[in-house]
Amino acid sequence: MLQVLLCGALFDAVDGSVKKNMAVLIDENRIAAIEPQASFVMPEDARVVDLGKHFVMPGLIDAHVHLAFCGTPALSEMTQPVEFVAAKALKNAKDNLMGGFTTVRDEGYVSAQGCQNIRDAINAGIAQGSRIFTSGLVITQTAGHLEPSYTQERFGFQSFKPVNVANCPDEVVAAARFMLKMGADQIKIMVTGGVLSKGTNVGEQNMSNEEIRAAVAVGKMHGRVVSAHAHGTEGIKAAAREGVTVIEHCTTIDDEGIDLMVKNGVSLVPTFTVLKVLAEKGAANGVSADAVGKSAALAPKHMENVKKAYDAGVRIVFGTDTGTPLGYHGMQHGEFALMVQAGISVQDALLSSTRYAAELLQWQNSIGTIEKNKLADIVAIEGDPFVAIQDMEKVAFIMKDGHIYKQNI
Ligand SMILES: [Zn+2]
Q1: Ligand 1 mean position, distance from CA 44 (Å)
Q2: pLDDT, the chain, mean
Q3: Which residue of 58, 235, 276, 409 has the lowest C-beta tally within 10 Å?
Q4: Of 332, 354, 387, which one is at a domain's C-terminal end?
Q5: Same domain, 51 and 65
Q6: Does 304 share its domain with 155?
């Protein structure tokens, strides 16, 4: 089937410009042509969607979500059977899609293979949801962020196994290779403590330089993304020095860390939403005092530090940590406003959730821009984000793979 989108304003994520009165021709699930409406020859049998009053752009990509979790303060999914969690994750994938996030990167799931199965079920058309790029289980260390027995002993979680525990470079290699064997798209490592693991110190480097190097070596051999969770300054620098692909949060980065990220081409996914929401609303909503305290201490400096990295030329990629307490799938558009508030341009905020994110996932040949032969993942916003960034939450039209999921125009 042929479809034509008549676009009043079209965000060109190739160069960041906005083009007026364009026509986008879609043949089945692929983009076939992009032309000015004035010279476009309308095919006779095409279905036409008039987006003349809308801001059309590539499908949004959230490069940091947790599909297993639903935003509950206690992260109750940690102790629930994996099959039950899978049902929730499938719903979360649908909710992301219906928010305009046609692709999400899952940054850590509750079982080794569950998220890949959900990814594959959606790709096979068995279920509806965002495209999913997976980590499988995260790799941490004894007494590290989300390490099961440590958490269990201290906080009473039962059957909590969302991690691979590795305590030397060889074990990191084994864990990373195991996750690739399980079909994960990338390798996720926990380099420092975390906000949500009571008792871990967010400032501490918990994964050794040698262990990080081992993960990076496996990633390089297999041509895979290595994603490093890091809040603390030393951990951020270690991850950047060893050449991970991307650092998540990057909360307390200093000038030396910024230089290392620029030099090694390391991307940064800030996830402003999670720290801000936990700091402001956590206490009233039953989130642990430990997590609220850590977030409140980190949030203000976080924005300043990310802005410095941005000004120095570090590639910023859109990510929200949705699924963690009070972060709800399909409702994470507030991150755009937080990015702009931090000093990131609207153009870069939009690129960060389209082309930049696609490039991070190494999926730039199929998604991230509206170009000929790419998959037809396209959304339309009511309003204009260049005038009011808050308009990003008004997603009125959603197409994924050439299929229209929402047409509220
Ligand atoms: Zn996360």
Answers
A1: 48
A2: 94
A3: 409
A4: 332
A5: no
A6: yes
Full domain range(s) for residue 22: 2-58+370-407
Is residue 189 within 8 Å of residue 232, measured between CB atoms? no
User: Is residue 358 a part of any domain in this protein?
Assistant: no
Calpha distance 62→120 (Å, rounded): 18
pLDDT in tens, 345-354: 999 999 999 9
> Any residues with CB less than 8 A from the CB of 241 and at least 6 apart, and which?
209, 260, 264
Backbone conformation region of residue 167, classed left if phi is above 0, alpha if psi is from -120 to 50, else beta? alpha
Express as a percent the part of the chain with pLDDT over 70: 95
Q: What is the mean pLDDT of residues 222-233?
A: 97
Q: Which residues does 104 contact at the CB level (< 8 Å), separation at least 6? A: 61, 62, 63, 65, 67, 93, 96, 130, 131, 132, 133
Banded model confidence at residue 408, pLDDT cuts 50, 70, 90: very high
Split into its structural domains, the chain has a count of 2
CATH (domain of 200): 3.20.20.140
Which residues have a beta carbon within 5 Å of ligand 1, which is an ion?
A: 107, 321
Expressed in angstroms and rounded, the spacing between residue 319 Cα and the centre of ligand 1 is: 9
